[in-house]
C-alpha cells in the first residue's frame, strides 16, 4: 500500500531540525509493506522512474536486523509503484544492497554483501552481484570467494553499454567490465605498488574513463586513472592527507576536477590532485556524516549524510556548497530508528531538466500501536537550472538548438578546427556518445544525433587544434 503524506514529511523536517532549510514538497510517497524495509541503495532509471533496494526484515528491536532478503521497489517518474520483488539468498544470515546501476537496455546490476553466519557477523562477508531484468526478474547472481577482503566498491556503466565493477578479489584491487551475461570483457589489476597490493576503496567515472582510489597498509592513498578500455594511466600519491575514501564520496565535476567529501568537510582537487579549496560545515549547523556527494543543476555540490537528533533517531541531511567552496545551507529529511550510523539512510537524485531533488530513503512510521520502517520517495524544490555554464574562457563552439527539439539533432558550429573526439558526458561523468572531430560541411559545422538519449542535462566536451578543452551544457527535454 502507498500513502501520500506531504504534511507528515514537512513536520518531520521542522520537528527534528528547526534550523534546517525547509523544502517545498512537490509529492511524497510512503510505501507501507507487511514487513520493515531499510534503505540500501537507489537509482533513477532511464525512463525517469526509480528503483529502491534495501534490507527486508520482519521485526524491529535489533540495531543490525539480520535477514536473507533484499526488497526491490520499482516506481514511475511520479513515485507510483510499478512492481516489488524480493531476492532471497537463504544460505546467508544477512543480505545488504549497496549499489545499483542500469544499462541501456533496462537491466539493473545490484551489488551487495552478505554475512554468512551469525557467529562472526563482522568477519565472514561474501560480496555478490545480481542482475535483474527490466521487470525485476532475477537473471543471475555472482559471488566473490568468502572473505572479508573480497568486496565490491562500485558499479558504473561504460560507453560500450557494459557494466564496470570495482572490486577487491583474492587480495588484489581490480576493475572489471562485465556484459549483460556476466562475462568478463576486460579486467585490470590495480595493485598499489610492485611490493604491495593494497586495496581499492572507491571508484568514480571521469570523462575519459574511471578513477580508482587505492589505499596502502600505512593509509597512503593513490589515485589511479583507468581508460574506458581498462588501461592503467596516470596516478597520483596522496600520502595520509585524506582519511579512507568510501564509495560515493568523490565525484568528477567541471573541467576534470574531483570533489571529495569526508565527514563535515568538502574538498575540491584538480585532475592531478592539487588541492583547490576546502570547506567545512559551520559549527552552528548540523553535524553531518558525509557519505555521498552529487552536483546539482546550478553547479553546486550537495553532500548527503546522516545526523542524529537523539540516541535513537538518525535523519538524512543534505548540505549544499557553491562551486567556489562556500557553505550555503542544510536541509533535513526523514527520521528513522538507529540502525547504524555507518549506513546511509537515504540519498538524493537530481532531476537534470527541472533541477528538483528526489529524495529516496527509509523512515520511521508509527500508526499509534506499532512502529515500522518503510521506504520513502519524495520530490522537493531544488536548484535552478543554469541556461549555460559560467564561461571560463571564450567559447570554442556554439550548439543549437539548445534545449534540443523532438528531432534530437544538434548542430555544433566552431570558429576554428576541432580535434580529437567530441564527447557527450552525462552528470555522472560517463561518456554516452562520441564523434570524430571532422567538419562535415564548410564552416566547421558538426551534425550530431542525440536519438535515444533519455531526457536530462549533458555536457559536450570539445578540444581545439591547440589541445585546449571546453564544455558546452546541453539540455535534452
UniProtKB/TrEMBL annotation:
InterPro entries with a match to the protein in the record: Quinoprotein_ADH-like_sf, Secre_tail
Stretches that traverse the bilayer: none
Superkingdom per UniProt: Bacteria
Signal peptide: 1-23
Keywords: Signal
Protein name as it appears in the record: T9SS C-terminal target domain-containing protein
Organism (species): Hymenobacter perfusus
Amino acid at each position: 500500500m502507498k500513502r501520500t503524506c506531504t504534511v507528515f514529511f514537512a513536520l518531520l523536517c521542522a520537528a527534528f531540525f528547526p534550523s534546517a532549510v525547509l523544502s517545498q514538497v512537490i509529492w511524497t510517497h510512503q510505501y507501507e509493506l507487511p514487513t520493515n524495509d531499510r534503505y540500501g541503495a537507489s537509482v533513477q532509471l532511464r525512463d525517469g522512474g526509480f528503483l529502491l533496494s534495501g534490507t527486508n526484515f520482519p521485526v524491529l528491536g535489533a540495531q543490525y536486523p539480520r535477514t536473507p532478503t533484499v526488497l526491490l521497489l520499482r516506481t514511475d517518474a511520479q513515485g507510483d509503484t510499478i512492481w516489488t520483488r524480493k531476492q532471497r539468498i537463504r544460505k546467508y544470515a544477512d543480505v545488504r544492497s549497496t549499489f545499483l546501476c542500469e544499462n541501456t537496455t533496462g537491466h539493473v546490476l545490484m551489488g551487495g554483501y552478505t554475512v554468512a553466519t551469525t557467529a562472526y557477523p563482522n568477519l565472514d562477508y561474501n560480496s555478490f552481484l545480481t542482475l535483474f531484468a527490466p521487470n525485476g526478474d532475477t537473471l543471475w547472481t555472482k559471488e566473490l570467494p568468502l572473505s572479508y577482503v573480497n568486496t565490491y566498491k562500485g558499479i558504473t556503466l561504460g560507453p560500450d553499454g557494459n557494466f564496470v565493477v570495482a572490486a577487491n578479489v583474492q587480495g588484489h584491487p581490480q576493475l572489471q567490465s562485465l556484459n549483460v551475461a556476466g562475462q568478463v570483457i576486460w579486467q585490470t589489476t590495480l595493485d598499489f605498488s610492485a611490493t604491495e597490493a593494497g586495496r581499492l576503496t572507491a571508484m568514480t567515472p571521469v570523462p575519459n574513463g574511471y578513477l580508482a582510489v587505492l589505499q596502502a597498509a600505512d593509509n597512503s592513498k593513490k589515485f589511479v586513472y583507468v581508460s574506458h578500455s581498462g588501461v592503467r594511466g596516470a596516478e597520483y600519491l596522496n600520502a595520509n592527507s585524506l582519511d579512507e575514501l568510501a564509495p560515493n564520496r568523490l565525484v568528477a565535476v567541471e573541467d576534470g576536477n574531483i570533489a571529495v567529501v569526508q565527514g563535515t568537510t568538502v574538498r575540491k582537487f584538480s585532475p592531478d590532485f592539487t588541492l583547490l579549496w576546502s570547506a567545512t560545515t559551520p559549527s552552528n549547523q548540523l553535524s553531518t556524516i558525509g557519505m555521498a556527494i552529487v552536483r546539482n543543476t546550478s553547479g553546486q555540490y550537495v553532500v548527503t549524510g546522516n545526523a542524529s537528533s537523539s540516541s535513537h533517531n538518525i535523519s538524512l541531511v543534505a548540505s549544499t556548497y557553491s562551486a567556489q567552496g562556500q557553505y550555503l545551507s542544510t536541509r533535513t529529511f526523514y527520521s528513522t530508528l538507529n540502525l547504524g550510523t555507518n549506513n546511509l539512510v537515504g540519498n538524493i537524485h537530481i532531476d537534470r531538466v527541472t533541477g528538483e531533488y528526489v529524495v529516496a530513503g527509509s523512515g520511521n512510521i508509527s500508526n499509534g500501536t506499532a512502529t515500522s520502517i518503510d521506504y520513502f520517495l519524495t520530490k522537493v524544490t531544488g536548484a535552478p537550472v543554469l541556461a549555460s555554464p559560467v564561461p571560463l574562457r571564450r567559447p570554442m563552439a556554439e550548439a543549437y538548438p539548445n534545449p534540443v527539439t523532438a528531432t534530437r539533432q544538434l548542430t555544433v558550429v566552431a570558429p576554428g578546427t576541432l580535434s580529437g573526439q567530441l564527447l557527450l558526458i552525462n552528470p555522472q561523468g560517463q561518456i554516452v556518445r562520441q564523434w570524430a572531430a571532422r567538419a562535415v560541411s564548410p564552416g566547421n559545422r558538426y551534425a550530431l544525433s542525440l536519438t535515444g538519449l533519455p531526457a536530462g542535462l549533458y555536457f559536450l566536451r570539445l578540444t581545439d587544434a591547440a589541445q585546449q578543452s571546453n564544455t558546452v551544457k546541453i539540455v535534452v527535454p
